[in-house]
Design brief:
Layout lengths: L7 E7 L6 H6 L6 E6 L6 H5 L6 E3 L5 H11 L4 E4 L4 E2 L2 H14 L5 E4 L1 E5 L2 E3 L9 E6 L3 E6 L2 E6 L3 E3 L4 E3 L5 H21 L6 H18 L7 H36 L1
Parallel strand pairs: 1-2, 1-4, 2-3, 6-12, 7-13
Antiparallel strand pairs: 4-9, 5-13, 6-9, 7-8, 10-11
Helix pairs in contact: 5-7, 6-7
């Protein structure tokens, strides 16, 4: 019988992930509980999820932070592991988690996990995508949620330790999917900037994108990956450019709406 203090709930938030969700849940079968919060998927996501757990909850999308916070609130075990639908827990990471919870679970409130991306038919150890440490394993009652979409944060009351083995991240199916996600996340990020009271400046669009390219391609050694490394650095720069360009667009729209209000 498992020690109750080392039992773990896996939580997954998803929407229309039928191409990813089975592999994700297969990698979580070792957990004591799997909780899935689905935003009313229109594909086979829910059907597949119910093959692995009876804790499938459908809930309207409330934003990245609030949706994950809700999934957290539904977990019943002492420890919680957050995994996205496009991520996989390797056997090595699984064994490391079991080991650290058994040996150090009473000393730490959470664990940061490195993430390793698989994209363009290769693992990305360079170019800025690794190790990308993120808190993914935490005590259920020692964690709260902060940050703004799409950069939600898990806030921990207690000590945090890093793990060694990475969580495998299959972030993009192909280049088209990558560009579609850049378009989506830059829209969310620009709104976040505006909500924080940030204003658009020429220097943001002029200097930030080339520096982002330089950081990924040179400082983070993306050039060692050949043409794919150049592509990753370029798309990172495009992300930054679009985020601030869309902030300017929001400001122009706001000015236009104010002008209409005066008429």
């Amino acid at each position: 019988m498992s020690n109750p203090t080392t039992e773990i709930s896996a939580i997954v938030v998803c929407f229309n992930e039928e191409h990813n969700i089975r592999d994700c849940l297969e990698s979580l079968k070792w957990c004591n509980e799997i909780v899935v919060v689905d935003s009313f998927s229109t594909d086979r996501t829910v059907e597949i999820c119910r093959e692995y757990t009876n804790r499938v909850i459908q809930r309207p999308w409330a934003g990245y932070r609030d949706q994950k916070a809700f999934a957290h609130s539904q977990a019943t075990r002492e420890w919680v592991m957050l995994v996205d639908a496009d991520e996989r827990v390797s056997q090595e990471l699984r064994e490391e988690i079991r080991d650290v919870l058994s040996r150090f679970g009473d000393r730490y409130a959470a664990f940061r996990v490195p993430r390793l991306v698989y994209y363009l038919r290769q693992w990305w150890w360079r170019g800025g995508w690794y190790p990308d440490y993120d808190i993914r394993v935490f005590r259920r009652d020692r964690a709260t949620w902060g940050g703004l979409d799409p950069h939600e944060q898990i806030l921990i009351d207690g000590k945090v330790r890093r793990l060694k083995n990475p969580l495998h991240h299959f972030s993009y199916r192909d280049i088209t999917d990558h560009l579609n996600r850049i378009n989506h996340f830059t829209t969310v990020s620009s709104k976040e900037l505006k909500d924080q009271g940030k204003r658009w400046r020429w220097m943001d669009n002029l200097f930030r994108p080339p520096f982002r390219f330089f950081r990924s391609y040179v400082l983070q050694r993306g050039f060692l990956e050949g043409v794919p490394g150049f592509f990753i650095a370029a798309t990172a720069a495009i992300y930054v450019f679009l985020k601030y360009a869309k902030l300017k667009e929001l400001e122009l729209l706001e000015q236009e709406n104010r002008g209409r209000g005066r008429r």
